[in-house]
């Protein structure tokens, strides 16, 4: 094949590769294909998050701001990822636009060469016709040479037409890329001029300001209970599960204690996700059996009622030793003053924003509930409050911000019926319903870090969300 044909063949081969590349690559860049970017699903789990939203606000007669703050799930800023994807897409489009420009210049150069060839071919065709008209005047040899050249050039005419079409297509692609770049640039400007790091820093600053604001919140009053959210189904009808309210944000260990008696095994899981999957990390064999289901983990230690006694045990998970034990004076035990469901639930240990508590009943208080604040190190009773609510008529109870909330039953239709404030030494009857989904609650405890109620509901480990009414401190408050 002659040099012009070789060069044209190379151009056509280049065009074929360009067309194939454009058909495969460009749609994915400009969003014309059906491929979608997906995000990986995280393991379904329940992990209460910190964070508040203002539910409502008003001003009391003294001029103080009164707000209802709800603690919702904390969501990631999905807009940051979209902004980053948008920048990456814009960079790819700009790089492609530059490549198209180089290709266009090369194409125009080769196109001019082919057009020149087309002119030569037309001239040869005219000469050939002239020779055909007067072939007798030329030698047969010259005629044959011209005939062969013409035969070589004639098949290139339809290829030339296709080449013109491809050149137009490249020009069209170039224009579309230019338009897309303009649109993406406009969208980016509309989103904002902040890059990812700057946006991330703004979010961090906002979270810091929010936490500073939350520190000004006084302890709240329970207004509403929602849920439950079922975390897992395991164990017997009765048991306890809990996390440490004083643990760091990165420490999400879960402890699991099945049954209300005749057991000394505590199972530990590194996270809610491991708890759900059953990936146990450690097992503790307590030195004593426990009574009831009303244990609590607080500041790295387990507090529980020793079986067949009114003795409280403090057990360290780190050392595996008993750090303290003390008899709770006059407290009834071994089903003398249990909750309505029984199960040796005479002594209920719990923790809230203020500290460690014990809820029980005594003969001296006619079987009514007694609330005692405990020293977490020595288990010494710091102060006690005697209520008028019969312990055997209570379904369960829990402390929030120094106020004891008591349910009227452990069965279907239960509600928070009574509350007693240790701050004011006053009580009131309440009517706060909650959904007893599995018909039998044997453990209900508040976690101040998660701001949620942990419950054991007939072999189901569930969580309830709580809504609290808060009063924001002002600079004038003492």
TrEMBL record:
<dbReference type="Pfam" id="PF12308">
    <property type="entry name" value="Noelin-1"/>
</dbReference>
<dbReference type="GO" id="GO:0007165">
    <property type="term" value="P:signal transduction"/>
</dbReference>
<dbReference type="InterPro" id="IPR050605">
    <property type="entry name" value="Olfactomedin-like_domain"/>
</dbReference>
<dbReference type="GO" id="GO:0005615">
    <property type="term" value="C:extracellular space"/>
</dbReference>
<keyword id="KW-1015">Disulfide bond</keyword>
<dbReference type="InterPro" id="IPR011044">
    <property type="entry name" value="Quino_amine_DH_bsu"/>
</dbReference>
<dbReference type="InterPro" id="IPR022082">
    <property type="entry name" value="Noelin_dom"/>
</dbReference>
<keyword id="KW-0770">Synapse</keyword>
<keyword id="KW-0732">Signal</keyword>
<feature type="coiled-coil region">
    <location>
        <begin position="79"/>
        <end position="141"/>
    </location>
</feature>
<keyword id="KW-0325">Glycoprotein</keyword>
<dbReference type="GO" id="GO:0045202">
    <property type="term" value="C:synapse"/>
</dbReference>
<protein>
    <submittedName>
        <fullName>NOE3 protein</fullName>
    </submittedName>
</protein>
<dbReference type="Pfam" id="PF02191">
    <property type="entry name" value="OLF"/>
</dbReference>
<feature type="disulfide bond">
    <location>
        <begin position="219"/>
        <end position="401"/>
    </location>
</feature>
<keyword id="KW-0964">Secreted</keyword>
<dbReference type="InterPro" id="IPR003112">
    <property type="entry name" value="Olfac-like_dom"/>
</dbReference>
<feature type="coiled-coil region">
    <location>
        <begin position="170"/>
        <end position="216"/>
    </location>
</feature>
<feature type="domain" description="Olfactomedin-like">
    <location>
        <begin position="218"/>
        <end position="470"/>
    </location>
</feature>
<keyword id="KW-0175">Coiled coil</keyword>
